[in-house]
Amino acid sequence: MKKLSLMMLFLVGLALMVPSAFAADVVKLGINEVRSGAFKSNGDRIIWGVETAVKEANDAGGILGKKIEIVIEDNQMKGEIAVQKVKKMILKDDVQIIIQGSSSGVGGAIAQAMPRYKRIYLDIAAEAMGITGANFTPYTFRACLNAGMHVKGLAQYFGKKGLKKVFLINQDYSWGHDVAAYFEKFIKEIAPDTQVVGKEFHKVFNKDFAPYISKIQASGAEYVITGNWGTDLAQLIIQSRSLGMNLPIGCTFLDDDAVMSVAGDSAKGCVEANMYVLGVDSDKAKAFENTYNKNSGGKWPSFVSGQAYMGTKMYLAAVKKAGTFDTEAVIKAFEGLTWEGPVATLTMRKEDHQNQTPVVIGEFAQKTKYYDSPYLKPVTIIPADQVSISLEDSGFKPYEGR
Description:
alpha/beta; globular; Rossmann fold; 15 strands; 2 domains
């Protein structure tokens, strides 16, 4: 009887130990994204990019002997909800990192919450300058371009085209205002005789662009610059063409299969600038496309999926370098980290945690090998040092709360 009791105690202890031992072999990454509403497709593509990077890591044996799991929460593209979900994901789910990209408004709210929890926020698509500038915290790492770098690429492209009159139309929040301000700054440096003949800001998820298009047509503009993304970009393009406005439109987020499948032939004359555009003609880029296609179940990496993939890979590289998932150690390893991307070497700038990356310019193409509908074709790559923004121009302020 005594032996039986001891055996029962042993089995109970073993049963209690197994789950905790198993849990010790798992690490969780959190994705705090829009999972509902008009911009859900953007959240989908961010998730696909992270999932692809995680699948590759797990197939190779995990990271530091741990299998990676993903926890996903819907922030409904609202900052206050995103912060609530951050609390749940860290305190209840014990995620090591929060990954997000849809909306700089949401990203800014998440960034400001992270010092409280001392976990890393990996920004893979939110580009408002303040996130790594005036509102910098050591827990934020931006894997994508910032607004200034992004539009500096567009300014270089259009500044060399001989076009003199530009109209700026953007969403009315931090990102859109940064696009307008920094494009105006850099186009005046690159092509000083350029005139900004109009500047408009509209609500996010705007359905009627006709009043804005009328202003553009009356302004005498020779081209348009917009930071619109998702449905706001697709509708701006479609409605402008239907109303007879056929000016070139310089975009920041057109390399998106969801947008291009809707815009179709209406996107003729549009130009894209981003850190990655599908179809770069290099061995590394082709290898990335094929690897992504294989590991994502047949998808092709649009800009946001590519950024999510690359950002996750850089974070995991920092973890390997640190030899631990401890936040403070990973921060030190991430600062100054270089990683070979599909277009060029990427470097995480130590001071402000802003990724230094080239800009790829893509133009409308009637046919590509990737989709049945029209897409974009990369035409040139602007090196990282030609689009980099200084700490001063970024509005960077050192973090004082640590």
